[in-house]
Design a protein that fits this description.
The chain is of the alpha/beta class. It is built from nine helices and 25 strands. The chain has helices spanning 88-108, 199-214, 259-271, 329-343, 360-365, 379-391, 404-407, 429-437, 450-462; strands spanning 6-10, 13-15, 19-24, 27-32, 39-48, 51-61, 117-119, 126-128, 145-150, 161-167, 176-180, 188-190, 229-236, 242-249, 278-286, 298-304, 308-312, 315-319, 350-354, 371-376, 397-401, 417-420, 442-447, 465-473, 483-490.
Length: 492
């Protein structure tokens, strides 16, 4: 294959998260966003060290797996979902096989061979001198127990948070509000009928776009750094049905109608919608950062309050605009039940919940633990966690605001158990070394990106931990993402 040339082939398998693999004339190529069994036409845009990467041009024939007609009119153009046309059971099978393959790569790529455990000169932790710590417990097939994949309780309308972008689908076109067009940094696709959110989201999105389109309010152009409308953030609780909506704009108001009146009428427009849920708050967030992210320089409540409540496993949680909270509330209950099961007996023990967000895991464990310490870098989330713990009557939870990399070296307590629930990129290597240095008997690693997970597992195995159990939880139906829970124990 040559760079710039066009080829046709059949996708053989899908590697996490969206990497379609095929071979042409004996050469391997990676084509993103193609499904197993599809016949695709692609252009080679990268070739290095014998590996080709191709840009998908056309699906010439569907996959035999695509037996479910997409219920979403935006599928294929919107970059949000990959597997809408594959029945849910088959989606689960694909994700399960992806994770199993990645886990096996941990042992294949382990630098050690047969040998014995010796003691580290640094911290006394047992370090394998000849074999990966997770291997060899009864042979190849018994390295760990793989408990398959647990489905989301619902596969439609499951998301409780969306960050929609303002823009246009083609240069100079009408105002759009929705998701990025697949493969595009600039183009936006209207997603009025998105299937992975509750219908309330779609009503709010449509009303917002039409309101500002009629008034010809310009969207923010990232390259020129000009314009007003940037994002629409919507969060909705499943149990309480409370809704938080936030319009994110720049501070560039020159030539616009009076901002207070403009936004006040927008809020009134939303309040008049026939929604199933009810607004806890409607906010205006100013963001003049150069990055294309949703963040706040200044937040004003146009209606109600700047937070809402959700309930999980009998506990109540206060959630603010930027607090981390699992995006699938019902799926989160499945995930956290699995975490609680993997942690086991916590009576009389000290637990560290690192990357604790609004303290969900910490509070689920607190009733049966001696003491729980949560560490989270987002100060707003830490404050919410403290309020949540007080609201739920949990006096044995302590929450610390700070970067895990810096904070773990300052903690005096010695944990019996550590729960890791890091962001997508996993645990910082230096932080992971400090975490290992605690010498906790058990670790439970909750991962939303299995490629980051296996990188960190390689370090944990080499530093004296063994994998006991693994389970996948599908929090993101129709998409390429998956949560994985891993239980590890320290080898004596």
């Amino acid at each position: 294959m040559k760079k710039g040339e066009t080829y046709t082939g059949i996708i053989e398998k899908l590697e996490f998260p969206n990497r379609g693999i095929l071979h042409v004339d004996g050469e391997k190529a990676i084509v993103k966003n193609a499904l197993p069994g599809q016949k695709v036409r692609f252009a080679v845009n990268k070739k290095r060290n014998g590996r080709c990467e191709g840009r998908l041009l056309e699906v010439e024939a569907p996959s035999p797996l695509e037996t479910a007609p997409s219920p979403c009119p935006h599928f294929g153009r919107c970059g949000g979902c990959l597997m809408q046309t594959i029945p849910y059971e088959e989606q689960l099978n694909i994700k399960e096989q992806q994770v199993k393959s990645l886990l096996e790569s941990v042992w294949r790529e382990c630098p050690f061979t047969e040998g014995k455990m010796e003691e580290s000169s640094e911290d006394g932790a047992p370090v394998p001198q000849g074999s990966c710590a997770g291997a060899g417990r009864g042979g190849e097939a018994e390295r760990y127990i793989f408990q398959g994949i647990k489905p989301s309780p619902i596969s439609d309308g499951y998301r409780n948070k969306m960050e929609f972008s303002f823009g246009d689908e083609e240069k100079g076109g009408p105002l759009c509000l929705g998701m990025h067009k697949r493969g595009s940094f600039h183009d936006i696709v209207n997603t009025d009928n998105c299937r992975i959110v509750h219908p309330d989201f779609n009503q709010i999105l449509t009303a917002t776009r039409e309101y500002f389109a009629v008034r010809e309010i310009p969207f923010y152009k990232k390259l020129r750094r000009q314009g007003y409308l940037r994002h629409l953030l919507v969060r909705r609780a499943v149990k309480t049905e409370e809704i938080l909506a936030a319009l994110v704009t720049s501070g560039q108001t020159e030539g616009l109608p009076a901002e207070e009146e403009l936004l006040g009428q927008w809020a009134e427009e939303l309040l008049s919608l026939p929604l199933e849920g009810s607004f806890a708050g409607i906010l205006h967030i100013k963001n003049d950062s150069l990055a294309d992210v949703v963040q706040s320089d200044e937040t004003t409540a146009l209606y109600g309050r700047d937070y809402f409540y959700e309930e999980l496993l009998g506990l109540k949680f206060k959630i603010s605009p930027f607090s981390f909270f699992q995006t699938n509330s019902l799926g989160a209950e499945v995930l956290y039940k699995t975490v609680r099961e993997y942690i086991g007996d916590t009576r009389g023990k000290t637990v560290f919940d690192l990357y604790s967000g609004t303290g969900t895991i910490a509070q689920i464990l607190a009733p049966v633990a001696e003491h729980v310490v949560g560490v989270e870098i987002v100060a707003e989330a830490v404050e919410a966690a403290r309020e949540n713990a007080a609201m739920n009557g949990l006096a044995n939870c302590e929450f610390i605001a700070g970067d895990v990399l810096k904070v773990v070296g300052e903690l005096d307590a010695a944990p019996d158990l550590i729960v890791l629930d890091p962001p997508r990129d996993g645990v910082h290597p230096k932080a992971l070394e400090k975490i290992i240095g605690f010498g906790a008997e058990r670790l439970v690693y909750v991962s939303c990106k299995p490629t980051s997970l296996v990188r960190d597992l390689g370090v944990l195995l080499a530093r004296g931990y063994a994998v006991e159990r693994v389970c996948c939880v599908d929090m993101f139906p129709a998409t390429a993402n998956i949560e994985t829970v891993v239980a590890l124990s320290r080898i004596k």
